[in-house]
């Protein structure tokens, strides 16, 4: 039997974990959440929630995964034999597969737009980008082919393994993501009138400082760090015992915050400089950004770079979602990785087809007044992820003996006390509030 794979380097693990955390949560969702919730106040609360609540749970997942040294389901069985804690692993595996089923649809949209950008079909006078977006998502053949292409890219990386696939891809994609975002950021903030967008991001409008904004920022912090679905449990299982998981967690959370801010600095200065509204919501990337770049010098080249970055970010998250499923199916049987990657990628692709068609052919099918895509999004992000994060927090805070956690984290007594208090008491309360809020909002729709 082959031994457990491991990341070849510490930086490889950090970049892979950061790539999973960043995803389209930082580049797609973060800007429109900022734009529709007051800008700077939301950013301030997001950073606080990420560091004080999201990071401790991230570290808890790292601890569980490294100690288990196997897939999430077996990890909980190994550490809590004859107890039902292994159901956390099952929840993570099922949720990861469901998220990837609609996440790959968005990845397909990005591929469609990237192809249009490369062939200069996103330029020219008279293009109605709102209408174009509707045409893309309503075209059944295009969305299914694009979704399939995105899943193919994802599985080719995952089937190559941890060191040769996930780590290599992350080591290339994440530095390129950062470098190109810095360049786009510089171009954006040097536009005439761009400082209005910078002020929107960093000068507080305290009228938005309320419980609603706080809860949205807290939800975004959990979503953007990918906590609650055992991704980080899985990645940490590939770590050697001597790895300092506290510093790794801090690095991942910091990189997530930096990329989120850079995404905002690419988008909002250009949006304000060219007279667009920051409150366009989820369509900001696909409907506003092409219109913005069209009016910039070398705009088409910059637009190609932007969608390449968005694709990179989406792929790094997608490979982590597929890896959770594959890792739990093969255990230590490394020779089965390729077969498992193809099998589960094909299955997830098939499950995702109704989501891909939910804006066109299947638009008349709804669940509780939501499209198939929106329903699965809600079910996973608003219900399953908070529930998973809640049980992970309880497992680390109550099932683990305090002395064991101190040995695993290898940090100062003060920092350990802060982490232990948050995971045991504060984070569960915050998660329950998020969960209740999500259910109430859903019931009121």
TrEMBL record:
It comes from the Bacteria. It comes from Lysinibacillus louembei. SUPFAM superfamilies: SNF-like (SSF161070). It holds the Pfam family SNF. InterPro entries: Na/ntran_symport, SNS_sf, YocR/YhdH-like. Keywords: Membrane, Transmembrane, Transmembrane helix, Transport. CDD domains: SLC6sbd_Tyt1-Like (cd10336). The chain crosses the membrane at residues 7-28, 40-64, 85-111, 143-162, 174-194, 214-238, 250-276, 296-319, 340-363, 383-401, 422-444. Its main location: membrane. This is Sodium-dependent transporter. It is a multi-pass membrane protein.
